[in-house]
Design goal:
Radius of gyration of chain A: 18 Å
Number of helices of chain B: 3
Chains: A mainly alpha (202), B alpha+beta (201), C mainly alpha (191)
Number of helices of chain A: 8
Structural class of chain A: mainly alpha
Number of strands of chain A: 2
Largest sheet of chain B: 5 strands, antiparallel
Order of helices and strands of chain B: HEEEEEHEEH
Strand content of chain A: under 5%
Oligomer: heterotrimer
Order of helices and strands of chain A: HHHHHHHEEH
Number of domains of chain A: 1
Distance between the termini of chain B: 69 Å
Shape of chain A: globular
Shape of chain B: elongated
Helix content of chain A: 55-70%
Number of strands of chain B: 7
Strand order of the largest sheet of chain B: 1-2-3-4-5
Number of domains of chain B: 1
Structural class of chain B: alpha+beta
Radius of gyration of chain B: 23 Å
Strand content of chain B: 15-25%
Chain lengths: 202, 201, 191
C-alpha cells in the first residue's frame, strides 16, 4: 500500500475515489432520499456518523479479530451504530426520521461503509482510517447535496424549503419523482466521467 | 487458544457489547420517541377540534380510533376521529373532527401519506381542500365537487372540494372519511358511543 | 389490504427497484444479458420469500414480545447474512443444476439492500404473516421484472451510439428513469 500524505488521503474521497460519482457505491440512498435537500443532508450526516465510528472501532480492534469472522464482526459494529443513529433521529428529529422512513436502518447495507472497513480500516492505523472515513463521508455528502439541490430547486422551486425560483417558475414534478432521481444521477455520472477524461488528457 | 474458540469468543464479546450498548441507548431514547408519536397525534387533534385539551379514547379498532375531546373546564369540545385507509399510492392516515352532536365535521388534517410528491401529496397542504372541510354534514354520504370551487359557500353541505391535479388522492381521502363516518353512525346506533355528554362510570 | 392488492402493488406500483430504489447494485451490475438477469431475479425472489418468513418470525415471536425493537437492525442483518449462506449450501446439496444456475448470484445477494429493505419495510407496514409472505414473493417478482426488462433494453443499447461518458452506468440510470416513469402509469390501478 502506498503511503499518502494526510491531505491526499482525505481528498481522494472527494473526487478521485468519490463513493457515488466514481465508485458507484451507495446508490440506493443516493437516489431515494434526494427529493429534498434536508433529507439528503440528514442522510449524509447519519452515514458520516456511522462510517466514522465504525472505522474507528474496526481499525482499533482489527488485530483481535480472526479473519474468518471479520465480516460478521464488521456487520455487528455497523448495525449497532446504525441503530444508534436511527434512535437518535427518532428521538430528536422526528419529522426527518419519518421522511427518511426505512432508509435510515438501510444504512446498514450501504456498501460504502462495509467496503471501507474491508478495504481500508482493517489494514490501516486508527488515524489514517479516520481521515479516510472523513474523506469518503464528505464525498458522499457532497454527491447527495448536489443531487438533492438540483432535484429540489427544479422539482419544487425551493432550496431547504425556501422559495428560490420566481413566480414564473412551474416546478418540474418529474424531478421529485423516482424517475427524476434516476435521470439526474445518470446525467451527473456522465458529467463526472467527462470531467475526469478531460483532466486526464491535459 | 484454538482458532474456533477465538472466533466464538470474539463474536460473543462483540455481540454482548453491542447488545448492552444498544439496550442503554434504547432506554435513553424510548420515552422521547413515544412522546414524539403522541405529540403528533395531539397536534393533529388540536387542528381539527377547537379548544381540545383532554383526550379520552372512546373506541379503538384497526385503522380507526375515536377520541372524545374535553375543554380545559370539562366542557365537551367535540370528537376526533383518526382513520387509515388506502390512498393512491400507499396508506393515508388522517384525523378529522366532529362537533359535540356528532353531526358536523369541524376540520381535517393529514397525519401520514406517501402520495406522489408534487401531485397527490397536495392533500397535506392545499388550503382550498383542507379548510373547506369545516361544517360538512356528517349524517350522510359526502361527495366530491369537481372542478374545485374557490370559496366554501359555493359548496353544498354534503360536498367537499377537490384538488386540481390530485383528484384521485382527494377522492381517496373522501372515501376514508365516508367509511369512518359510516362506522361512527353504526356505533352511535348500537349505543357504543353517545352524542350527549355523560360519564358512563 | 387484500392479498391481491399487496401482490400487485409489490410487483408494479411500489416496485423495489423503481419505487424504493433498492437492489440498484445488481440491477445495474447483472443486467447486461437477459438470461443472467433472469437467474439473478429468480435467486432474489427465492431469498426474498424465505427472508419474509424468517424476518416475520423473528420480529413477531422474539423482538416485539420481549420489547427488543432496538435489536431489529442487528438481528435482521445477521439473520439475512447467515440465511443466504444456508440457502447456498442447501441448494448445492440437493440440486446441483439449480446451484449452477443461481449459485454465483447468491453471495452477491448478502449485501443486496433489497433483502434487508424487504425485512424492514414488511415490519414497518405491520403486515400479518400471510401478507408478509405475499409481499416478499411479489417484491421478488417485481425485482425480476425490472431487471429482465432492463437487460432487454441494454442488449439493444449495445447496438446504438451512446455518448462516451454516458456508457455503462450513466445510460443505464437514464433508462431506469424512463422505466420508472412508465411504471408510474400503474399507480392507481388498485383503485
Amino acid at each position: 500500500m502506498t503511503t499518502k500524505t494526510i491531505r491526499a488521503e482525505y481528498l481522494k474521497g472527494l473526487w478521485d475515489e468519490n463513493p457515488v460519482l466514481r465508485q458507484l457505491l451507495g446508490l440506493c440512498p443516493t437516489l431515494a432520499v434526494t427529493g429534498t435537500v434536508i433529507t439528503g443532508l440528514a442522510m449524509g450526516l447519519a452515514t458520516t456518523f456511522v462510517l466514522i465510528l465504525s472505522s474507528l472501532v474496526v481499525s482499533s480492534i482489527k488485530k483481535l479479530i480472526p479473519a474468518q469472522v471479520r465480516i460478521a464482526t464488521y456487520i455487528v459494529v455497523i448495525a449497532s451504530f446504525v441503530t444508534i443513529a436511527d434512535q437518535f433521529l427518532k428521538a430528536f428529529f422526528y419529522p426527518i426520521s419519518e421522511a427518511l422512513g426505512p432508509y435510515v436502518p438501510l444504512i446498514v447495507v450501504n456498501c460504502i461503509i462495509l467496503g471501507r472497513q474491508e478495504a481500508f480500516s482493517s489494514r490501516n492505523s486508527i488515524g489514517r482510517s479516520l481521515i479516510d472515513a472523513l474523506g469518503m463521508s464528505t464525498g458522499f455528502l457532497l454527491a447527495l447535496l448536489v443531487l438533492s439541490s438540483i432535484r429540489e430547486i427544479l422539482g419544487a422551486g425551493t432550496f431547504l424549503g425556501y422559495q428560490v425560483m420566481g413566480p414564473w417558475f412551474k416546478p418540474w414534478i418529474i424531478m421529485i419523482l423516482p424517475a427524476g432521481a434516476f435521470i439526474t444521477l445518470g446525467i451527473l455520472l456522465g458529467i463526472a466521467l467527462k470531467i475526469e477524461s478531460k483532466t486526464k488528457r491535459s | 487458544m484454538s482458532l474456533s474458540s477465538r472466533m466464538i469468543l470474539v463474536l460473543t464479546t462483540v455481540g454482548l457489547i453491542s447488545g448492552g450498548f444498544l439496550a442503554g441507548v434504547a432506554k435513553l431514547t424510548k420515552e422521547r420517541i413515544a412522546l414524539n408519536i403522541q405529540a403528533e397525534i395531539e397536534e393533529a387533534i388540536k387542528i381539527v377540534v377547537d379548544d381540545a385539551e383532554v383526550s379520552t379514547v372512546l373506541y379503538e379498532e384497526e385503522d380507526l380510533v375515536i377520541y372524545r375531546e374535553m375543554e380545559d373546564d370539562g366542557q365537551l369540545a367535540g370528537y376526533a376521529i383518526q382513520a387509515t385507509g388506502v390512498g393512491f399510492q400507499d396508506k393515508i392516515t388522517l384525523m378529522f373532527g366532529l362537533d359535540e352532536t356528532l353531526t358536523k365535521i369541524t376540520g381535517l388534517t393529514i397525519i401520514d401519506q406517501k402520495e406522489t410528491p408534487g401531485l397527490g401529496a397536495k392533500i397535506t397542504e392545499w388550503v382550498a381542500f383542507l379548510q373547506f372541510w369545516e361544517d360538512r354534514d356528517a349524517t350522510g354520504l359526502l361527495t366530491l365537487r369537481k372542478p374545485p370551487v374557490r370559496t366554501p359557500p359555493e359548496l353544498l353541505a354534503t360536498e367537499i372540494n377537490s384538488i386540481t391535479a390530485a383528484t384521485i388522492s382527494s377522492r381517496k381521502v373522501l372515501k376514508i372519511v365516508n367509511l369512518s363516518l359510516e362506522k361512527v353512525r353504526g356505533l352511535i346506533a348500537e349505543g357504543k358511543i353517545t352524542s350527549e355528554e355523560h360519564d358512563d362510570h | 389490504m387484500e392479498l391481491v392488492a399487496i401482490f400487485i402493488s409489490a410487483v408494479l406500483v411500489q416496485n423495489f427497484v423503481l419505487y424504493y430504489f433498492l437492489g440498484i447494485c445488481p440491477f445495474l451490475g447483472v443486467s447486461k444479458k437477459i438470461d443472467s438477469a433472469l437467474s439473478m431475479g429468480l435467486a432474489v425472489t427465492f431469498v426474498m420469500s424465505i427472508t419474509a418468513v424468517v424476518s416475520w418470525l423473528i420480529n413477531n415471536l422474539i423482538l416485539i414480545p420481549y420489547d427488543l425493537g432496538y435489536l431489529q437492525i442487528v438481528s435482521f442483518i445477521l439473520v439475512i447474512a447467515s440465511l443466504v449462506q444456508l440457502v447456498e449450501m442447501f441448494i448445492r446439496k440437493i440440486s446441483p443444476p439449480l446451484y449452477q444456475a443461481l449459485g454465483i448470484y447468491l453471495p452477491l445477494i448478502t449485501t443486496n439492500c433489497a433483502i434487508m429493505g424487504l425485512a424492514l419495510i414488511a415490519a414497518l407496514n405491520g403486515y400479518s404473516f400471510v401478507e408478509t409472505v405475499i409481499f416478499g414473493f411479489g417484491s421478488g417478482i417485481g425485482f425480476t421484472l425490472a431487471i429482465v426488462l432492463m437487460a432487454g433494453i441494454r442488449e439493444q443499447l449495445d447496438l446504438s451510439d451512446v455518448p462516451e461518458p454516458l456508457k455503462g452506468a450513466g445510460i443505464a440510470l437514464i433508462v431506469a428513469g424512463i422505466m420508472a416513469l412508465a411504471f408510474n402509469g400503474f399507480i392507481g390501478m388498485l383503485t
